[in-house]
């Protein structure tokens, strides 16, 4: 179950949980030399915020790039942060952005 901030009722620490899972996966790949070939990290986010000292999607993406992974970012055009756009400009051969805009997407509640 997702925890919620008691003042705002917003989801609490969900991004940080995702970051931790991705960092853990990348660490496993770094330690195990048997994993070979091209790997791609796919994230669905537009969030490139500094996050007040907590981990960020920008840090996660940079770590994946450092490990030799490609990165695919899915986002709405209006939601993609300037920080992520800048990162894409820095790594044009290894980061690709795909937009949800114009796609048939079904989002359904549990």
Tally of extended strands? 3
Strand residues, percent: 5-15%
Largest sheet: 3 strands, parallel
Mean pLDDT: 85
Order of helices and strands: HEHEHE
Give the CA-CA distance, first to last residue: 12 Å
So how many helices?
3
Describe it for me?
With 110 residues, the protein is an alpha/beta fold. It is 34% helix and 15% strand. The chain starts with 13 loop residues before the first helix and ends in an 11-residue tail after the last strand. The mean pLDDT is 85.
Question: How are the SSEs ordered, and which strands pair?
Answer:
Layout: H1 14-31, E1 40-44, H2 57-66, E2 70-75, H3 82-90, E3 95-99
Parallel strand pairs: 1-2, 2-3
Helix pairs in contact: 1-2
Main attributes of the structure:
3 strands, 3 helices, 15% strand, 110 residues
Q: TL;DR of this structure?
A:
Helices cover 34% and strands 15% of the residues.
């Amino acid at each position: 179950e997702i925890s919620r901030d008691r003042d705002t009722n917003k989801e609490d620490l969900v991004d940080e949980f995702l970051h931790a899972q991705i960092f853990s996966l990348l660490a496993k790949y770094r330690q195990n030399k048997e994993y070979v070939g091209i790997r791609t990290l796919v994230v669905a986010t537009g969030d490139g915020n500094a996050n007040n000292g907590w981990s960020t999607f920008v840090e996660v993406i940079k770590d994946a790039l450092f490990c030799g992974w490609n990165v695919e970012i899915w986002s709405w055009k209006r939601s993609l942060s300037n920080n992520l756009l800048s990162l894409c400009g820095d790594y044009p051969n290894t980061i690709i952005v795909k937009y949800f805009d114009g796609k048939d997407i079904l989002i359904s509640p549990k």
